[in-house]
Write a sequence for this structure.
């Protein structure tokens, strides 16, 4: 009797167990599916969904604020071998190395070429010469380095043209700020990402009027060239020349590096 | 015969050589001053230090501190230069140019390019300030600026002098674009119980009420010469109290006569020459844009659309184009039209959502507005109208609405609820250097004076 009861109970439990299993499988399956479908196509921070392209802040031409500075890799110090011999590197501690058995092919060649006595420069380096590749950015005053001649990569020099940039650094700063705020980079062909340096020369009269605008070095792209010329023409009149300055006009060489 | 020909040739050759020699010897072309500079991969900002102004008497001590602090805050907020941190300054501070030690300021840690300094004396009610700006990196250079200010000993006057000197420096270094330190901001404040028009200095100081109408005043707009403020007021017209256009004169301190019309009249906007006012009016039933002279004459209807048109903004550079908000497409969006109502076009944005409060930059190239995108709150955006390029200025910081440009095009003032209450904030036009200008009660709808 009791045995029979247990058998019957086991029989009765088997069907609900199967049902329960089936429902659990269905439940978990639907959970997985709903998770998948609700998150599909919406990658966090991706371009899908409702995201739109909005530009970076601080890069809007038209606002007369200085562009933020861009870090570029230094080209002053490099790894190339220089003209003069560098100071010897401090010796590293030697680690005992196992000798690799030599192959037949790697045997030293029979003839060793000796250094040429004709081509080798035997004059000693001048005193105080900095080995090539071991220099650094020169520490110069702002007026000399940035304003005076940062242009072509050299230092400022005072030739026969006088020392305008040294005496009136604020005026150079003013001209630079004014032209760069009037340089509308949005007018450049959107396909152009980068252009070589364009150089424009002009003259500023005492009252600030700009004359003789001339493109002396083209960037190679007409729309960049036009935008630079427009920047200078729309900056006229510049601020008046300093009162302490006696000349009737100042010549300016202005370079533009276009880069988006 | 042949001999004479050859000899004349020789003579002419000699003459040419002598001419060439003279032209080479002529001075002038070689003695021409020149300099070389440029722009491109970012611009290194000039580092400017502003020394504490030296008080000439003990009574001038607090005044000198206020002057130096205001000057420093103005320079810091100008956006075109880098203010050297005060902790790097040498201990010895010059009061006159003969005491200036260039190297102490131009070398590390200050590493300044320019130094502003001077002295301040106060005797009785007479204030005298001497201020200079020197290029410290070049001891041979003459003074960039030398100024002397005289006036009464009041806090407002002292701040005005500091703002004026800061503006001179900013104008010198930025190439002629005047600074905005002397400008003012009109806004709506409810701190007196009613919404009235208030005015403050651009840095939030000197806040004072302008109107006391004891009703509701909204959307103040400075006239281009900063002598009048047009705003929306509530006044009776034909027996009903309704929204009307009011104009307050800053010179007389009273309202200027301006006609009243049926229905709701609001959102005035001045033409760039100050001779006309564009506004929204429902005098014909539907809210449309109307144009009138500054004295209310020559009323003209400009828009004829099914939806409401409001918030006009006149391009300040050309005076030809007007941006406005219209819901003719279902929801409020930005539209452009000519100032005579012709040639309407929609400014399409890449996303849906309400777009309100357009404001032109002073150079007429950029349009700032607030936009509620489907995923977020109202935020400020700037659009380059020619290329339709967008830049987002605020994000995840309450509601940011009603931008207004400073006359230099470098600053924007707006209202924000990021502190929990509605307050006026200002920032640089690239979204940096945020400053809260108001704290009391609720303040909204700022407008920057044109000068």
């Amino acid at each position: 009797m009791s045995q029979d009861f247990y058998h019957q109970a086991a029989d009765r439990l088997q069907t609900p167990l199967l049902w329960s299993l089936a429902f659990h499988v269905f439940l978990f399956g639907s959970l997985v599916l709903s998770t998948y479908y609700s998150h599909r196509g919406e990658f966090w921070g991706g371009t899908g969904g409702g995201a739109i392209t909005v530009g970076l802040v601080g890069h809007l031409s038209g606002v007369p604020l200085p562009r933020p500075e861009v870090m570029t890799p230094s080209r002053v110090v490099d790894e190339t071998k220089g003209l003069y011999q560098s100071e010897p590197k401090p010796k590293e501690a030697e680690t005992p190395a196992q000798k690799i058995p030599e192959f037949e092919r790697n045997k030293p060649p029979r003839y060793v070429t000796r250094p040429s006595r004709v081509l080798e420069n035997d004059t000693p380096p001048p005193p105080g010469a900095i080995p090539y590749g071991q220099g650094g950015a020169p520490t110069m005053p702002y007026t000399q380095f940035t304003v005076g001649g940062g242009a072509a990569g050299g230092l400022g020099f005072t030739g026969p043209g006088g020392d305008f940039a040294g005496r009136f650094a604020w005026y150079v700063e003013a001209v630079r700020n004014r032209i760069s705020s009037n340089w509308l980079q949005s007018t450049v062909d959107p396909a152009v990402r980068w252009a070589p340096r364009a150089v424009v020369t002009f003259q500023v009269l005492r009252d600030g009027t700009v004359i003789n605008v001339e493109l002396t070095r083209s960037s190679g792209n007409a729309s960049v060239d036009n935008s630079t010329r427009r920047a200078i023409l729309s900056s006229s009149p510049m601020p008046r020349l300093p009162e302490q300055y006696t000349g009737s006009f100042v010549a300016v060489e202005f370079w533009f590096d276009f880069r988006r | 015969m042949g001999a004479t020909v050859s000899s004349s040739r020789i003579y002419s050759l000699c003459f040419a050589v002598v001419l060439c020699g003279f032209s080479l010897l002529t001075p002038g072309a070689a003695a021409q001053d020149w300099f070389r500079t440029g722009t491109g991969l970012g611009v290194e900002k000039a580092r400017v230090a502003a020394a504490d102004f030296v008080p000439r008497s003990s009574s001038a001590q607090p005044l000198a501190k206020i002057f130096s602090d205001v000057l420093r805050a103005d320079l810091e907020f100008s956006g075109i230069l880098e203010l050297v941190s005060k902790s790097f300054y040498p201990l010895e501070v010059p009061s006159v140019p003969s005491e200036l030690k260039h190297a102490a300021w131009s070398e590390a840690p200050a590493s300044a390019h320019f130094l502003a300094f001077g002295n301040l004396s106060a005797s009785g009610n007479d204030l005298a300030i001497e201020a200079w700006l020197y290029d410290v990196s070049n001891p041979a250079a003459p003074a960039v600026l030398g100024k002397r200010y005289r006036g009464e000993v009041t806090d407002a006057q002292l701040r005005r002098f500091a703002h004026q000197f800061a503006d001179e420096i900013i104008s010198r270094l930025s190439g002629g674009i005047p600074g905005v330190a002397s400008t003012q901001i009109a806004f709506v404040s409810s701190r007196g119980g009613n919404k009235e028009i208030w005015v403050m200095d651009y840095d939030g100081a000197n806040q004072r009420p302008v109107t006391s109408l004891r009703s509701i005043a909204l959307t103040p707009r400075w006239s281009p010469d900063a002598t009048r403020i047009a705003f929306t007021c509530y006044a009776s017209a034909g027996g009903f109290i309704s929204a009307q256009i009011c104009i307050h004169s800053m010179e007389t301190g009273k309202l200027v006569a301006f006609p009243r019309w049926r229905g709701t009249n609001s959102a005035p906007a001045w033409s760039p020459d100050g001779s006309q006012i564009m506004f929204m009016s429902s005098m014909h039933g539907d809210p449309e844009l109307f144009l009138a002279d500054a004295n209310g004459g020559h009323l003209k209807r400009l828009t004829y659309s099914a939806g409401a048109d409001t918030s006009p903004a006149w391009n300040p550079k050309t005076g030809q184009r007007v941006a406005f908000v219209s819901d003719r497409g279902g929801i409020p969006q930005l539209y452009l039209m000519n100032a005579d109502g012709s040639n309407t076009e929609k400014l399409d944005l890449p996303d849906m959502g309400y777009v309100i409060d357009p404001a032109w930059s002073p150079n007429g190239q950029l349009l700032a507005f607030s936009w509620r995108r489907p995923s977020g709150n109202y935020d400020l955006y700037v659009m380059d109208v020619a290329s339709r390029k967008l830049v987002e200025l605020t994000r995840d910081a309450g509601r940011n609405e009603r931008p207004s440009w400073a006359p230099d095009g470098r600053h924007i003032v707006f209202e924000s609820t990021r502190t929990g209450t509605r307050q006026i904030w200002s920032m640089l036009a690239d979204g940096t250097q945020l400053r809260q200008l108001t704290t009391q009660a609720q303040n909204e709808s700022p407008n920057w004076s044109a000068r």
